[in-house]
Specification:
The protein contains two helices and four strands. With 66 residues, the chain is of the alpha+beta class. It has a single domain, classed as Alpha-Beta Plaits (2-Layer Sandwich), CATH 3.30.70. It has a two-stranded antiparallel ribbon with strand order 1-4. 18% of the residues are buried. It is globular and about 30 Å long. Its cofactor is [3Fe-4S] cluster.
Length: 66
């Protein structure tokens, strides 16, 4: 199973919580908003990504499993 994560920049307000909590997956663009740095989330980081999803104040992060 692979997990892909997306950030909805229409909802994101740039709090940066995801970038702080999981820098292996979330990077920062030139304006301070998160971008997904990996095509597929490594298995050992899935729990951290799920925590970011739950902790996002704008509910701007989602993940899909394949």
């Amino acid at each position: 199973m692979t997990v892909q994560v997306q950030v909805d920049l229409n909802r994101c307000q740039g709090h940066g919580k995801c970038m702080i909590a999981c820098p292996e997956v979330f990077d920062e663009d030139g304006q301070g908003y998160p971008v997904v740095a990996v095509a597929e989330v490594p298995a050992d980081l899935v729990a951290a990504v799920n925590a970011c999803i739950d902790d996002c104040p704008e509910r701007a992060i989602s993940a899909t499993s394949r």
